[in-house]
Amino acid sequence: MKRAHFSPALFTFLKELRRHNNREWFLANKGRYESDVREPLLRFIGDFAPHLHRISPHFVADARPVGGSMFRIYRDTRFARDKSPYKTVAAVQFRHEQGGDVHTPGFYLHLEPGNVFGGAGLWHPDSGSLRRVREAIVEHPEKWKRATSGRSFGRDYRLTGESLKRPPRGFDPEHPLIGDLRRKDFVATTSFTEEDACSPAFLTTYAKRAKFATEFMEFLTRAIDLRW
After folding, report:
1. Is residue 185 part of a domain?
2. Number of domains in the chain
3. pLDDT tens digits, 161-213
4. What is the DSSP secondary-structure string of the chain?
């Protein structure tokens, strides 16, 4: 019988961390973080690896506790007004092998009380990558429309992220896909519930949703000259 990766204890811990976001509380409850959040995330990452490889062998599921696919619980507060030391979400990103940070193509999982979702795409890309994606949309409009309106993708995902208020420089403001050309992020998200996340079937469900985004991810990855 399949065993669930995540449990309600993960969401309970994050709720309590939101109320007690300080070093003393975290250290007193670090054992709970490790057993209820960190270890389940690392196990999920390891178990998702073969599913990811079947989508594309050039994306990585790295189950190392530091420097891998799991986001750190510690916030970088150096330039932030909010000096709370810990993140109150649990998250992982499965990045392209040639990408070193969150601004390269990737699949994403976000676990937060009342807000569980998966993601796929390119978030806050650099200006060169952004232009290449826009040029690819202009050059291959039908391929882009198929990638973003396929039956399964269109049912389970929605495009999100920031957009320019005006058409980007150098692109036809009357282009039929100008709404997409104005995008600054090329990200799609798919929603889950906490109950979904705690189900023994969640790994399979998440892997299926990730597969639905294959054409979308392939378009973006090839557009910025990375291997698919």
Report:
1. yes
2. 1
3. 999 999 999 999 999 999 999 999 999 999 999 999 999 999 999 999 999 99
4. ----S--HHHHHHHHHHHHS-SHHHHHHTHHHHIIIIIHHHHHHHHHHHHHHHHH-TTB-----SSSSSBPPSB---TT-S----B-SSEEEEEEBTT--STTSSEEEEEEETTEEEEEEEE-S--HHHHHHHHHHHHH-HHHHHHHHH-HHHHHH-EEES-B-SSPPTTS-TT-TTHHHHTBS-EEEEEEE-HHHHTSTTHHHHHHHHHHHTHHHHHHHHHHTT---
**How far is the C-alpha of 111 from the C-alpha of 19, rounded, in Å?**
17
Residue range 122-146, pLDDT digits in tens:
999 999 999 999 999 999 999 999 9
| Residue 143 resides in a domain | yes
Q: What is the CATH number of the domain that holds 90?
A: 3.30.930
Does residue 165 form part of some domain? yes
Within a domain: 1: no
Supply the range of the domain harboring residue 127.
8-72+83-223
